[in-house]
Amino acid sequence: MSTIRRYHAASWDEPVIYELGAPGRRGVVPPSSWAPAADDLIPADLRRAADPDLPELAEYEVRRHYTHLSQQTMGMMGISLFGTCTMKHNPTLNEQITSRPEVAAVHPRQDPSTYQGLLGIVHSLEEELRNLSGMSAFSFQPGGGADAAYLHTVITRAYFASKGELAQRRQIITTAQAHPCNPATAKAAGFEVITLPIEEDGYPSVEALRAVVGPHTAALMLNNPDDMGIYNPHITEFIDAVHDAGGLAFYDSANFNGVMTRLRARDLGFDACMYMLHKTFGVPKGGNGPSVGAYGCSEELARFLPGPRVVKDGETYDLIEPENSVGRVREFLGNVQQLVKAYSWTRAMGTDGLREAADLSVLANNYMEKQLMAIPGVTMSFPGKALPRLEMTRYSLEEYTAETGVTGHDVQNRMTDFGIDAFWTSHEPAFIPEPFTPEAGEMWSKEDLDEWIAVLAHVLEEGRRDPELVRTAPHNQVVAQIDGSGLDDPDTWAVTWAAYRRKSASRQSVGS
Amino acid sequence: MSPSHPYMANSAEGSRNALLEAIGVSDPDELFRQIPADHRSDDAIVPSAGIRSEFELRRMLEDRLRGVASTDSHVSFLGGGYWKHHIPALCDEIAARPEISTSVWGTPSSDHGRNQAWFEFTSQVGALVDLEFVGLPVYSWGCAAGHALRMAARLTGRSVVVIPAGLDRERRLVIETYCGYRELDGSLSIREVALDAATGTVSLAALADVLDDTVAAVYVETPNSWGVIEADIARIIDAAHAVGAEAIVGVDPISLGIMASPASFGADIVVGSLQPLGIPLNAGGGVGGFIASRDEERYARQFPTLQVSIAPTIREGERAFGMTLFGQSSYGARELGNDWTGNSVYLWAVRAAIYLALLGPQGMRELATTVVGNARRAAALIAEVPGVSVRYADGIFKEFIVDFSDTGLSVARINAALFARGILGGHDLSGTGEGLEGCALYCVTEVTSESDVRRLITALEEVVAS
After folding, report:
1. Beta-strand (E) ranges in A336-488?
2. Which pLDDT belongs to residue A343?
3. How far off is chain A from B69, nearest CA to CA, in Å?
4. Each residue of A96-125: pLDDT tens digit?
């Protein structure tokens, strides 16, 4: 059994930046204008009545404040097996390369001839992803996985509009275990959403699909394997049923990490797929982006892709607008600096490294599973079904909570007291009670996994001995457990300092 | 045998074998039994070997990037919604710290510092726009505008939105995507309001012609896509309100160092770009958008974003930061949510918070003053070049239309000649259908020096005379 480390977060009791500094201080002085002075360049009625209420600090104060905030962020400085997000090593080299002006200072409106090398890297990344997916073309414009799902719904609209069938094909089918972005983007694009339930095998049945698929079907959107590590072995029958009805099949490859180099979306029959470069391909998550949802599709759909696309003509890279382009889901080529990082990562890995990563992530998950299932109070989703699991397994603390009253949320908080960051519970709907979904990945060492497991076991044991200790956790963190009771109350929520001060003053005056 | 991979600790033979041994498996392939054999594509993939040496990887990448021109290597006048501003060194330092750059979702206590930085970002943006409810960033300015228009449609139950003609093409295309298709529920129809060719601003008469009680929102920008400050912003907002529409205004946050926020004239939702706030251009990958409104439940309930609220902890007198209204996001509500949300550009929120903290109120005022001063002066100097004129010079903030049509030279030809002289000229507005043949949009900011402008003028004089 691994040792439980003593840990305590750096805690600076750091004020909000508005509480720091003093009038007249400053961190940066902008250059003075070289033009003759003039006071009337902005008409008086359009000028600010007063300067904006921004903090006033010297540079070192700003530096110290944000360094404190950085130190008060665990991020991946501890151990984070944040399931469904596939925590990855983010090589420092890639940050250095993309800080170079040849990436960072390129303007999106430069003529393509002036940044051929950068466009070439984008094109090479597309070739890598085509190799891994079997798709014909990619767009990197989507600003994340959800945006790629949205792009699919937009392309679905354009595709059926081009065939004169859009008024008829109003439905998109997804599944209960699909990421919420799939139904959400389908609805946002104007489609009706049909959600297939999960059957006792852990995946939706072909019969349930066949019962709803038909002339109104525009698309199927799902992931496979799902977040429980279960692979639907009937997936090709799903695709065939949707194709027979004239619909499109979209593969949300959120869980590609465990099947890299083994499965190709196009070979399975999917018309389109998505990879999240900010997870699977080693790009840093940045606390929720900048991220990239790389969207790949068949030759038939490629003409609908958003522009601009990088194409190679001989030795020259150019930007084009596909023939029937949907236009844009966001501006320009997407988060280009992240594409360079993803390209670097794929080249560092090679297909041999990708295969090894998939193997190690599934191996590590199965190792974790064996250890976790030996801990009293831990059960797994759909026990006995679909074994061995792929890169994730969803577990439940239902029995443990019934025994102790300590919830998964409490356990999550207490684990952070030992330098273990939050585990992912489950996307909605959480049809497994008290769920938790760790994902070992290929990066973390066996020692890290052992430590994570030991901490979980320790916390569960603590909860039996002293449930209040766990329920009131964390105790070694920057701050104590949040009291979230007012977060959805208009009288108390405050997403800006100005709102907070106003509402606090109002409460004080009521109380006085 | 190749060395263990530096990105994968368990690729060391001993570690890997220990895992295999613990679960009683000799080959990882046995763990993939769930996948039917005929689903496998093992043989379809073209194999490649990984570059495990960091030095070799670096050399390959640097070789590929060699020769790329940029706004650092060249004097740049490119703009059009993506602007070269000075990035304070501290923005780079903090954003690169691994706690910040690698984090994903922690608990409110474990990722407290980052959440506080997000809160400070929304607070500072709120201060700039004079609004108290600000969501965490969306993908881009265009996406912010698209979401805001959809918010307005939900708020009003109407389905027509008014946007200005001449809107930046990239942003316009994003907005169109967000408006949907008529054949499907929830689609919005776009009506354009013409810009007055004489002033470069929205024509109030033309606006009156497109407004009626089906209009959900009027979206305008100031400074607008031609670089012109909308002098009648208050009347535009009033006109929208007069027909029961929401007034949505897009802004360049830098301009708010000196200009009044549209909210002070009654704008309901203010959106804009994060890019100028300490974020590199990244060939278009440095963008982000914000959405802000009054702190009224009516608006807050329509936000598609996540947002952090300050909240107490269970320890007396202590504060933390948690997600507010999470349940109305698509994470909580799936297809019943307000649009959708997901990974976006939150690292830029940290950069923007640092940027605004460094500049402060004086810095933002001085910066905006420098920008408008430099831009007006540069425009005046450029207009002295024979055959070259500048439109709407009195309304410039930092961008302006330079008309080369009297030179008889195309913008493309002029730009090629400028590039040969180390200059990135303004982007070509020909072909936009807005009467801008032979015109280019030029951008001048605080990083544009007088010698940069003199160099441009010398180059233009040579090119025009040739």
Report:
1. 379-380, 395-396, 435-436
2. 98
3. 5
4. 999 999 999 999 999 999 999 999 999 999
Q: Are A289 and B289 in contact (CB under 8 A)?
A: no
Q: Which residues of A touch B2 (CB under 8 A)?
A: 352
B1 lies within 8 A of chain A by CB:
no
Element of type H or E holding B352: helix B346-382
Q: Is the peptide bond before A290 cis (omega within 30 degrees of 0)?
A: yes
Mutation site for B-interface testing, chosen from A63, A66, A166 by largest number of B Cβ within 10 Å: A66
CB A72 within 8 A of CB A39: no
* Model confidence pLDDT, tens digit, residues B290-345: 999 999 999 999 999 999 999 999 999 999 999 999 988 888 888 888 899 889 99
Residue A509: band (very low, low, confident or very high) from pLDDT cuts 50, 70, 90: confident
CA distance A56 to chain B (A): 5
Chain B residues touching residue A481 (CB < 8 angstroms): 108-109, 313-314
Which has more pLDDT, B331 or B157?
B157
pLDDT of residue A511: 64
* CB contact set of A373 (below 8 Å; sequence gap of 6+): A380
pLDDT digits (tens, 9 = 90+) for B169-186: 999 999 999 999 999 999
Each residue's pLDDT tens digit, B250-276: 999 999 999 999 999 999 999 999 999
How many whole angstroms from its chain centre is CA B227? 16
Cβ pairs bridging A and B (under 8 Å): 746
Question: What is the distance between the alpha carbons of residues B85 and B88, in angstroms, rounded to a whole number?
Answer: 9
Cis ω for the linkage preceding B108 (within 30 of 0): no
CA distance B151 to B243: 17
DSSP string, A284-319: --TTT-S--EEEEE-HHHHTTSPSPEEEEETTEEEE
> Residue B173's closest CA among A274, A302, A186, A141?
A141
- Encoding tokens for residue B454? 């003199």
Rounded distance between C-alpha atoms, residue A334 and residue B332, angstroms: 27
End-to-end CA distance of chain A: 56
Of B90, B322, B358, the CB nearest to A487: B322
Whether residue B419 contacts residue A4, with contact meaning beta carbons closer than 8 Å, is answered with: no
Q: Which residues from A are below 8 Å from B257, CB to CB?
A: 48, 51-52
User: Contact, B359 vs B247, CB < 8 A?
Assistant: no
Residue indicated by tokens 């090709």: A236
B25 in A contact zone (CB under 8 Å): yes
Answer yes or no: pTM beyond 0.95: yes
Taking only residues 152 to 181 of chain A, the set having a beta carbon closer than 8 angstroms to any beta carbon of chain B reads: 154, 157, 161, 166-167, 170, 180-181
